[in-house]
Amino acid sequence: MSQHIDEVLTPASVQLAMQTFTEELEREKSLGTPDPARSVTMELEQIRKGGGTVPIEIKVTFLHDAAGQPVGILGVTRDITQRKRAERHCGRARRDTGNWCNTRQRVSIKLTL
After folding, report:
1. Any idea which fold 5-112 has?
2. Tens digits of per-residue pLDDT, 46-97?
3. Domain spans of the chain?
């Protein structure tokens, strides 16, 4: 079953994906010879069938014909909801620890004066 990119990704993700694809096509043209091992990894937002979105990571590789011209895209996606949750948790922990460290540093400075 084939779906258009607008049906699968949020508008912001469509814009990022299209910009990245355009840049990669230009990069490939400038190199002259396609690198079949080259891939690009992006973080995007995918639209769920029932509504809402899910953060995904997609690894994309261009498919080439016998003449080396790009003719398609192969993409593998994975749900990164748990990773994003862990990143937010770690960010809060760093902020909390940083605030504690800064407070402690200010106190020790006051004590040494």
Report:
1. Complement Module; domain 1 (2.10.70)
2. 999 888 999 999 999 999 998 888 888 899 999 999 999 888 888 776 776 6
3. 5-112
Secondary structure (3-state) at 112: helix
Report the candidate in 26, 37, 111, 110 with the shortest Cα–Cα distance to residue 74: 37
Assess contact for 61 and 42: CB atoms under 8 A.
no
Whether residue 111 is predicted with pLDDT greater than 60 in this model: the reply is no
Give the CA distances from residue 39 to residues 17, 25, 77, 108, in Å, rounded to whole numbers and listed in that order.
13, 12, 13, 51
- Contact between 14 and 7 (Cβ < 8 Å): no
User: In Å, how far from its chain's centre is CA 103?
Assistant: 35
